[in-house]
Write a structure and sequence with these properties.
It is a single chain. The protein has one domain: RlpA-like domain (Barwin-like endoglucanases, Beta Barrel). Helix content is about 10%, strand content about 20%. The protein is built from two helices and six strands, in the order βαβββαββ. The protein starts with about 25 loop residues before the first strand and ends in a 5-residue tail after the last strand. Pfam families: DPBB_1. Causes loosening and extension of plant cell walls by disrupting non-covalent bonding between cellulose microfibrils and matrix glucans. No enzymatic activity has been found. It is a peripheral membrane protein. Belongs to the expansin family. Expansin A subfamily.
């Protein structure tokens, strides 16, 4: 929902994302990105891919930084290519609505995105149990579509 209250808890075990400092810029990652929990706490910069999406539903020149806080579970009863977006081998971010609305128009539904994972510039920050996405000076390896 609009206040992201339905995104609390989750597979990473962060509990109340507001009181833990993550706020509403969070996402559940598809199984391929979640990597058995190794992605918990990782930071991603995400933008709508205007080359693949209907431009009517993309906000141009805008990015949002999210923290991986949950798993978007696969549903093997649906096909990966046009049904369940969280099935392997699909990379997918099931973003909290406030984060998603930074890059897309709500009416657009699922939109293609480009993303970059933050690589901590200070190794010790990746070991802390705090929301480091707000603290890091990111190094980006390049956008992935």
């Amino acid at each position: 929902g609009a206040d992201a209250s339905d995104t609390m808890g989750g597979a990473c075990g962060y509990g109340n994302l507001y009181s833990a400092g993550y706020g509403t810029r969070t996402a559940a990652l598809s199984q391929v990105l979640f990597n058995d929990g190794a992605a918990c706490g990782q930071c991603y910069k995400i933008a709508c891919d205007r080359k693949l999406a209907d431009p009517m539903f993309c906000k141009p020149g805008v990015t949002v930084t999210i923290t991986a806080t949950n798993l978007c579970p696969p549903n093997y009863a649906l096909p990966s290519d046009n049904g369940d977006w969280c099935n392997p081998p699909m990379p997918h971010f099931d973003m909290a609505q406030p984060a998603w609305e930074k890059i897309g128009v709500y009416k657009g539904g699922i939109i293609p995105v480009m993303y970059q994972r933050y690589i901590p510039t200070h190794e010790y920050l990746s070991l802390l149990y705090v929301p480091v996405c707000k603290l890091l000076k990111p190094f980006f390896a390049g956008f992935h579509a």
